[in-house]
Amino acid sequence: MVIQKRASLADAERRQFPRVAISMPVKLTRSKGQAITGLMQNVSPGGMQVRLSARSAAALLPKRKKSGDSGLGPVHAQFLVPLRQERVAIAVNCLVAHVSPVKGAPAEAQIAMGFRFKRFKDTRTLRRFVLFIEEQLVPMEDYELYLHGGALPRQKHNRKRTRSR
What we know:
The chain has about 160 residues and is of the alpha+beta class.
């Protein structure tokens, strides 16, 4: 699993849901029990993007009845996230939000599939997932302040005082 450098707070505030760039395996299971493994590319409080082979994506998605309709019910996703000194299992039901080809990608990552989170396994899992996202978005030196509701430190301005006459 690879987590890229932490996102800045400015980058996080640009989007509705800030994303954490990450590379980790994710297991996707349809309601009929067919399991597929993909590689998560990014994750946010609202969802994730997973890269899949064309074959895996076709197995996950049934044939579309009409344009824009995946015909797919909830997909169960399982993955591990690093939280402090341990790896935490996350289980969440999600819906397919978008599917698009990735030009020039290796065979195992030709399809980018976006998933929207619907329901986490339980509230403890949800809390731990939110902590993971927060840890990745807030620089470590500011994290303790952030956790306890403190304001981020202000930078001192070094202006020369001038006297008015």
